[in-house]
């Protein structure tokens, strides 16, 4: 039985495909139309929850960095951008619903008082700073950096914990339904960096 949220995801996904820029159709149209049909089948049949979750994770992977659908924002801002953003919100709402139903750590977003933009914070030792959709928890020195740094020795745990970061942006709920922040302006191991961090992994300075 398809849930209301699953139906909304399909509706918004099809709207996204319908406003796909002409320049992108050769690469994306056939794949996305196939995925729309697969979504109809997966959400309508008694498919196990893990398979449903992994299907939405696959769709989410189309919206990453270079050579993904995010590259098309500048091609056709307006309708495509608005629909892409709408699809992001409903897609992630469904991912959070599946995540919780699969028994993974989950929270009530409304119970948190988010840190304001511009706040100075430090990272809590041992706390999970980020969760990937595959369930991997990042803890220092493994971090979800805000930029890709090649050829630079990664900072140590001590170096990361010693940094005072500034909250640049309150991103909203992560997959665990906890506030997620983009923090920057941290001079770490001789380089100014930015990082993605969950609420419980930050303490105000």
TL;DR of this structure?
With 205 residues, this protein is of the alpha+beta class. The protein has helices at 4-18, 22-44, 49-60, 79-101, 157-162, and strands at residues 120-123, 130-131, 137-138, 144-145, 165-173, 179-188, 191-198, 202-204. Helices cover 39% and strands 20% of the residues.
Report what the structure shows.
With 205 residues, the chain is α+β, with helices and mostly antiparallel strands. It has helices at residues 4-18, 22-44, 49-60, 79-101, 157-162; strands spanning 120-123, 130-131, 137-138, 144-145, 165-173, 179-188, 191-198, 202-204. The chain folds into two domains: 4-101; 109-204, no CATH class. Strand 5 and strand 6 (179-188) form a beta hairpin. It is globular and about 50 Å long.
């Amino acid at each position: 039985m398809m849930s209301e949220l699953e139906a909304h995801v399909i509706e918004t996904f099809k709207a996204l495909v319908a406003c796909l820029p002409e320049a992108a159709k050769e690469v994306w149209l056939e794949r996305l139309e196939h995925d729309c049909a697969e979504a109809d089948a997966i959400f309508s049949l008694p498919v196990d929850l893990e398979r449903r979750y992994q299907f939405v994770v696959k769709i989410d992977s189309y919206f990453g960095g270079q050579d993904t659908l995010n590259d098309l924002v500048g091609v056709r801002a307006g309708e495509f951008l608005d629909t892409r953003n709408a699809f992001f919100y409903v897609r992630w709402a469904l991912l959070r619903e599946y995540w919780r139903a699969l028994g993974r750590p989950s929270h009530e977003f409304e119970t948190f008082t988010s840190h304001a933009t511009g706040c100075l914070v430090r990272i809590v030792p041992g706390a999970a700073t980020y969760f990937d959709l595959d369930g991997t928890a990042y803890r220092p020195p493994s971090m979800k950096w805000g930029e890709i740094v090649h050829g630079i020795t990664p900072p140590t745990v001590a170096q990361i914990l010693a940094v005072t970061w500034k909250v640049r942006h309150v991103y909203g709920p992560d997959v665990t339904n906890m506030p997620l922040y983009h923090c920057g302006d941290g001079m770490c191991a001789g380089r100014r960096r930015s990082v993605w961090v969950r609420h419980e992994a930050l303490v105000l300075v």
